[in-house]
Amino acid sequence: MISRRLKERLGFGSLAICTILAIIPLIGIIGFLIWKGGPAITWEFLTQPPRKFLTEGGIFPAIVGTLGLTLGTIVVALPLGIGTAIYLVEYAKRNFFTTLVRIAIVNLAGVPSVVYGLFGMGLFVLTLNLGRSLVAGALTLGFLTLPVIISTAEEALLSVPDDYRHASLALGATRWQTIRRVVLPAALPSIITGAILGIGRAAGETAPIMFTAAAIYIPSLPRTIFDQVMALPYHLYAVATQIPNVPEPMAYGSAIVLLAIVGGLNLIAVIIRTKMRLKNMR
User: Which of 208, 245, 275, 280 is least enclosed, having the fewest CB within 10 Å?
Assistant: First the structure.
């Protein structure tokens, strides 16, 4: 008979092996990108516009365009997502309609990004006549991220114990005061973490911005939100598959910068979550 201690050790060992097997591909990908694209990461590459149709120069306009699209996605998706989650959890009754809304949100989270791109082109670019622009791309990415933010925020709000709400109401607070001062602060670390992770995913999407915002070669920065922009995901696709005679390190260097931006967003999520949880524990 196998003792309980041996079973426990075998279980922990199996979990450790699974963790290592999950981390090894990530380390391999990052190492391969650094090996191939590390020589391209220079100050000129990060701060200069492209030249000679992407075969020389840097990627600064693509970095600015990616950050602009990410910021626009936050402005569009975060208030709508959190507001919708608050309504569904705190105000809406449990009935057939809200059940359908929740099913629709879950299904929308699984819709391929290229479908959102076609939707954004049809609605924002053509119907609303925004053209291929920064604002059209941000709106499209905002709608792509919205189901993830709503689901994450709803789960975070549901995880707050009802005792918090009952105690606040018993002390004479209104429902909105209870939500704003008790429920939201308790749920905010999980909401922000999920939101930034969803936005980080949107920052790496190619199909939606291909139809609505991105251009292959624009050496200047956008002047207004109605201008087309370069963006790292589309830039990476272009230099890897569409543009001949592009030095290989430039393509891999662009991938490193895009990975750094997405990783930076994830790091911000971790820092915000940790600080808020420590603050709530005091």
Answer: 245
Q: What is the CATH number of the domain that holds 178?
A: 1.10.3720.10
Q: How many CA atoms lie within 13 Å of 95's alpha carbon, on the beta-carbon side?
A: 4
Which residue is associated with the tokens 């018993």? Answer: 170
Amino acid letter for position 184? L
Q: Which domain holds residue 71?
A: 38-281
Provide the pLDDT confidence category of residue 120 given band limits of 50, 70 and 90.
very high
Q: What is the pLDDT of residues 237-274, one digit of tens each?
A: 888 888 888 888 888 999 999 999 888 888 887 787 77
Long-range contacts of 122-127 (CB under 8 A, 24+ apart): 124/212, 125/211, 125/212
pLDDT band for position 69 (50/70/90)? very high
Q: What domain count does the chain have?
A: 1
